[in-house]
Amino acid sequence: MFEQQHEAFHKWCRVQNVQKSTENALLVYFDEKSRVVCSSTLWAHYSMLKLVINIRENVDISKFSKLLAFLKRKNEGFKPKKLNVPTIEQVDQFLPEAPDNKYLVMESCSYRGRCGSLSRKGAGRFLIAGKYHSKMT
Q1: What is the DSSP string of 56-73?
Q2: Please, are residues 25 and 59 in contact by the beta-carbon 8 Å criterion?
Q3: What is the pLDDT along the chain (137 residues), one digit of tens a residue?
Q4: How many CA atoms lie within 13 A of 69 on its CB side?
Q5: Distance of alpha carbon 137 from alpha carbon 135, whole angstroms
């Protein structure tokens, strides 16, 4: 993902005939991106580029005050979408009624997680293993 963002930026630089990762170049780049992605995505792309540009080009874009001000301005008034996360009661109602051939792993993981016999990391692995297993069968 980091490499993809860096490659996308450098592809844009080649098209625009930009030679270096300067503050002005990044301002124009992010201004163009801001027309098609939301501010949280801009921040994610900035974070990825910040790391890769620092490593590869030895340029610390975190010191580009105009770029940071631009990103902060784009973030004003942004309201993230709320995820529709089910309540414990909704999960308890759904899982017993759900078909076992599709949701047995989730049910088992939910039960083991609540009893404390499965850590959060283990629960993730358990779900992933079940997901791959259900695809194979």
Answers
A1: HH---GGG-HHHHHHHHH
A2: no
A3: 888 999 999 999 999 999 999 999 999 999 999 999 988 899 999 999 999 999 999 999 999 999 999 999 987 776 666 777 777 787 777 767 777 777 666 666 665 555 555 455 555 554 444 444 444 34
A4: 5
A5: 6
**Residue reference for tokens 């529709």:** 84
Length of the chain: 137
- Measured between alpha carbons, how far is 35 from 21 in angstroms, rounded to an integer? 21
This prediction has a pTM of 0.58
Contact 71, 42 (CB under 8 A): yes
Q: 26 near 67, Cβ under 8 Å? A: yes
Mention every residue, 6+ apart, whose C-beta is less than 8 A from residue 106. 95, 98, 127, 130
